[in-house]
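Quick one, T. Sequence first:
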Amino acid sequence: MNSGAGLNQAKAICWSGHLEGNCYQNRGAVGAWHAEMLKIRVFSPSVPMSKIILFNKPFNVLTQFRPDGDRPTLAQFITDPSLRVAGRLDRDSEGLLLLTDDGVLNARITQPQEKQFKTYQVQVDGMPSDAALQALRQGVLLNDGMTLPAEARQIDEPPGLWPRTPPVRYRAHLPTAWLEIRICEGRNRQVRRMTAAVGLPTLRLVRVQIGAYRLGDLQPGAWTEFM
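Structure tokens:
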């Protein structure tokens, strides 16, 4: 076990408004493991803390540091060369991205067997039927197999959501709706493919939570650090 990673998240989970619940309520990488890390911190105050960054990735930004023509990348927002992305977020998606300098913590966040739920707010083209929502909850067949059951519900447009640049296309004669979808897989463009499979193409996708880490009120291009 990497004690630095545990200490970092233990500190974050107990002191940060971007984390949900407390050390004993959360599951997965931020659960009893981090409660144990608090004990290590008490008896070993000199143990170094790992870095973890919560970043609100803007639309059209690539989740990589290396240059790619004239496309914007993470390097325009974050300059620490020790950080690695913990999971990806598509160029045309927005919201929460985690970065860390700790490989064990990175694996706990990204490996499918860790079952870290990711929560998305999704604007879709059309109005969801009960059957469509139930299909998302039960699992839908994609070209790479059935998805695991998801949590899906219709929500109001998220309050305080920033305007996207460029804006989502608007067609007055076609209604749109917002869904909240939680999945514990990480297939390529999975949420977009899931909504398309039930007849609801995704227009906008914002990730707001990974495990117990929440986007909170971070604005596009902004980040916060726990050390």
